[in-house]
């Protein structure tokens, strides 16, 4: 078993001093690194000294700092430890070890990567072990705004309806039938009987009322227009709106409307629902256990273990391995159903200059960045929020000459434009490239790196922000939600008059009769957002995905998500 106090001490000293024969250490240091009392720190140092893991020499006299020397070379010790943990399949310990801050290459080796994947546990349990390489954001349906977190929630919680992206229509789920008797102002949903929650109680209409009321209080933007929600019978829900809304049922198939039990306080650390998997906490992650009583059928796999670890290898593609199998995975390039963009903070003085905004658009030529930076990934320039629409439109041209003329017209004499960007290598590289290009034309920019879980706000000291937005299964609902959700950048940073015009167009969703009408509305909204250069769409990310040939009937989507419920491991001979 790993000696965690020893390992955390080695990690802290290596991070501070690098490779040395001995290290200076104080009891205050040890207390801080171990999170313990002075007495406990002394006992731990004495224990490690007595066991031969280190040599501890207490300081004698005032001003003489204690010293610690280690018996073995750190890299060699970690190689032996990680190999042993990998051989034992100790995924939780490997994940914990990876978070201590040792050099990544010394911990996350090829042998360690083989610990994760699809395999059979000691008791014959079919199990997938996988990793998440960033901190999780919100796991509350009210505020979830990440594709990965939304996908996890839908494994544990169920909505009333499901949207089928293949045919572009809704299909039954917790509600087996639904309809409107008056053309869209009143909607009636009929619930399945005998649907069980994970804690044993049966779903009824009061749980739906509780959930919708929770959404109305916590995310009023999402259920705007709802006047009344009633339960005429224990398995019937009636919703009255302020006017006809043909798009309303689509909102009840999204993550914000996942149904929760009324008698269990919601806890992001262990969400409880009616979904195909129960959620259990793990050291350094969580386990999704197949729910035998799921109304739509038990998952084929028994459990999925997810561990939080630092990013494995930069932007390397995630691979779904098969434990113990020697066949190579099959790779393919997939455009992510998302868009990257540059957005102005309309609340800053610099954003008021239309010429300056247009100049930055001319400067940011994504094809020039790809070419000059030698990016290996494939490039799909964005002319729309969705890659399928960008593929039908030629990328816009950019001109440094036009940029120079616009800058002269803008006559900007303010401080350097502060450019907010997530502290990721690829994103930083793009922001630095833009700043260098602008500087050559006399426009100063300062790149401001931000933590991965941060978002800029209107009052922040930033003029521009690099960001991305991911669409869910229902592209039109995702577009609507992105522009309506107050936690996202569009609502935070766009000018108030632009948002009013966008809202007026999006109100057309209520009466749109079909997908063609929704597409036309999207085109008009995009033209409004891009026409004033408050927003500049740059590119759609194209990712390389790999799936092992023994993994049957499941293919990762553009975000790397897989349908856990259908996942199973085939036989190489079949």
Largest sheet: 8 strands, mixed
What is the 3D shape?
globular
Estimate what percentage of residues fall within beta strands: 15-25%
Structural class: alpha+beta
Radius of gyration: 27 Å
Low-confidence stretches: 312-328, 548-556
In whole angstroms, how far apart are the ends? 39 Å
Helix content: 25-40%
Mean pLDDT: 87
Instruction: Count helical runs.
Output: 19
Task: Please tally the β strands and state the result.
Answer: 24
In short:
It comes from Deinococcus knuensis. This is Oligopeptide transport periplasmic protein. The chain contains 19 helices and 24 strands.
Describe the overall structure.
- This protein is an alpha+beta fold and 574 residues long.
- Helices cover 33% and strands 22% of the residues.
- β10 and β11 form a beta hairpin.
- α2 packs across α3, α11 packs antiparallel against α14 and α18 runs antiparallel to α19.
- It is globular, with a radius of gyration of 27 Å.
- The protein starts with a helix and ends in a 5-residue tail after the last strand.
Chain-wise SSE layout:
Elements: H1 4-17, E1 23-25, H2 27-34, H3 38-51, E2 54-57, E3 66-70, H4 74-88, H5 91-98, H6 104-107, H7 110-113, E4 117-120, E5 126-132, H8 147-156, E6 161-164, E7 169-172, E8 175-179, E9 186-191, H9 205-218, E10 226-233, E11 236-241, H10 248-251, E12 277-282, E13 285-290, E14 303-308, E15 319-320, E16 330-335, E17 338-344, H11 354-363, H12 366-373, E18 379-381, H13 387-390, H14 400-410, E19 417-422, H15 425-440, E20 445-450, E21 464-470, H16 475-484, H17 489-493, H18 496-506, H19 515-531, E22 535-547, E23 551-552, E24 568-569
Parallel strand pairs: 5-14, 15-22, 19-20, 19-21
Antiparallel strand pairs: 1-3, 2-3, 4-5, 6-7, 8-9, 9-11, 10-11, 12-13, 13-14, 16-22, 17-21, 17-22, 18-22, 23-24
Helix pairs in contact: 2-3, 11-14, 18-19
